[in-house]
Amino acid sequence: MSALQSISGKGQPAEAYDVVVVGAGFAGMYMLHRLRGLGLSARVYEQGSGVGGTWYWNRYPGARCDVESMQYSYSFSDELQQDWDWSERYAPQPEILKYANHVADRFNLRPDIQFNTRVDRAVFDEAANIWQVATSDGKTATARFVVLATGCLSNARMPDIKGLDRFKGKVYHTGHWPHDPVEFTGLRVGVIGTGSSGIQSVPVIAEQASHLTVFQRTANFSIPARNAKLTAEERERFRTNYPEIRRFAREEARNGIYTDLPDRGALDDGDNERRARYEQRWQRGGLTFMSVYNNLVLDKAANDTAANFVREKIAEIVSDPQTAKLLQPNNHPIGSKRICVDSDYFATFNRANVTLVDIRSNPIEEIVPNAVRAGGKDYEVDALVLATGFDAMTGSVAKIDISGRQGQTLNQKWAEGPKTYLGLMSVGFPNLFVITGPGSPSVLSNMIVSIEQHVDWITDCISFMRDRGFEAMEATKDAEDKWVAHVNEVAYTTLYPQANSWYMGANIPGKPRIFMPYIGGVGAYRQICNDVAAKGYEGFAMTSAARPQKLAASS
Ligand code: FAD
Ligand code: NAP
């Protein structure tokens, strides 16, 4: 029995589509919209019960974007970006989810999305150049193409802490938050983890809880968001200038965010001038703090000046010197872990009902029914919030059993780290695309900019194949090897690999330490992808149909 037969062996006829898309976050939704535009039949499977992906799952207190909403939004429809009113500089999660639902309704996407359905398995039939996809409802579908829009931060990671299952209070993971309101009033709450999710939720939980204990393993750099209501004038300024703002974000900004770009390095200025520049950006707030100078992620001495500035700020904000010292990051260059953006995070530690516990020097030994035990001491809590992050970039892909040429699985192929050409395809897995996959700028960027670029490229590519009667497309080994080497080489010209970050897979025991995203910048990367397409998809091999089989809308 072939692998194909074994997957469809339930006796039910498979549904046939041109394209199966996995995931209905911003990537899957836009992919569906573009495929519809080509006249192709597409089916999106989403394991959640609604659209929005990240913004469907991450409903924890304080969750909001950290790229400004006027930029963290789709640009493909000018009517949409002119119509939609963002309320705040950084919209809260419920509003971003409402936006995702609005997009689904506005473009009538729901009829082609099957919710509450997980894709468990995908097998490539080499003879027919068709993917066969098995879903959690026991059905199968066939498709010429599969697009993994499964998200880079969608596989919430439960920490492996002894006794967690015996805790008698409620346990919440920020990345898998309940849909019903969670009430912390009057409770003693423990938060484990101080990345972006912990840093956003701590100030809000502190206002509700009778006592909040924050368990910190690694102190993180965080910049104030300076969140505020958006005025009609501010929205209008963006709307009028959208053509240039979006162009700049796509083509010129390394990270897909419109901002003024630095013209010098940190060591080109004297102490006073440098301090004034950092102060100005600190007052402005947000991620673009790292754009003060052009060498902050390249030169350790330059980086130290920014890191010291932030450490001094923490010391100014936090009243207790010992707590301030613990909150000052000291084991990685600023920016080498995803920088955090907060609203009153450091000031929260001045509250009488908040305690910081350093679990780097006093690791958590176990969780007992009513407490977290660390350094021989019991910290009593009624509820636990795990802000412990994700199996990032590859985690959700790895959960699907994907079998390519000659039965090789993607997990086998990526056992020593993900290998892709342009982050889009992997040798041995024809007609399988990944959106914002490892080897693309992805998580180092305003993700919607990167998502739109990938979706547009994939759409053009499928259209190209259809027009020329190609049935299968696959990266060549030579192109993939060179790209993997290039991604790695560029990463090591920066300070990023110096941190034990989720970019490196370092948060998952046993995961290979590879710097996964491409750090060359979204503008340069877009140009490379465009050039590849212009040269007839250089580095990809396309094959024609042995038995011509047309895609739905072929003429
Ligand atoms: P996701 O939104 O993760 O959607 C993927 C979907 O695929 C999910 O709904 C998942 O359920 C589904 N799925 C996965 N596997 C399967 C399967 N096997 N079968 C069926 N369905 C499956 N980025 C920014 O640029 N700016 C920000 O401000 C920002 N803030 C963030 C805040 C948080 C809390 C988090 C966690 C991430 C944030 N990100 C941000 C990154 C964010 O993930 C992206 O911006 C973007 O939302 C990703 O969209 P996506 O569609 O690629 O993936
Ligand atoms: P994260 O950055 O990986 O942070 C996880 C935290 O949990 C870290 O402090 C980590 O400590 C700690 N941790 C993990 N396992 C632990 C264990 N077993 N014991 C004790 N501590 C443990 O995850 P995240 O905060 O969810 O953020 C992930 C990414 O999502 C962000 O970097 C960002 O890209 C995105 N995000 C964005 C926003 C936003 O502001 N818009 C908000 C949330 C998330 P170590 O550092 O020591 O490993």
Give an overview of the whole structure.
- It is a single chain.
- The protein is an alpha/beta fold.
- It folds into two domains: 15-155 and 392-544, FAD/NAD(P)-binding domain (3-Layer(bba) Sandwich), CATH 3.50.50.60; 157-220 and 337-389, FAD/NAD(P)-binding domain (3-Layer(bba) Sandwich).
- It is built from 16 helices and 20 strands.
- It has helices spanning 3-7, 26-37, 54-57, 78-83, 93-106, 196-208, 232-251, 271-284, 300-317, 321-327, 345-348, 395-398, 410-413, 447-468, 477-491, 522-534, and strands at 15-22, 42-45, 113-114, 119-125, 130-135, 140-148, 170-173, 188-192, 211-216, 222-224, 340-342, 354-358, 364-368, 371-374, 377-380, 383-386, 401-403, 432-434, 470-475, 540-544.
- Strands 1, 2, 3, 4, 5, 6, 17 and 18 form an eight-stranded mixed beta sheet that branches. A five-stranded parallel beta sheet has the order 7-16-8-9-12, covered by helices on one side. A three-stranded antiparallel beta sheet has the order 13-14-15, with no helix packed on it.
- Strand 14 and strand 15 (377-380) form a beta hairpin.
- The model is unreliable at 1-11 (pLDDT under 50).
- The site of NADP nicotinamide-adenine-dinucleotide phosphate has 27 residues, from helix 6.
CATH class of the largest domain, please? Alpha Beta
- Estimate the strand proportion: 15-25%
Largest sheet: 8 strands, mixed
Can you tell me the CATH superfamily of the largest domain? FAD/NAD(P)-binding domain
Q: What is the correct CATH architecture of the largest domain?
A: 3-Layer(bba) Sandwich
Q: Any idea how many domains?
A: 2
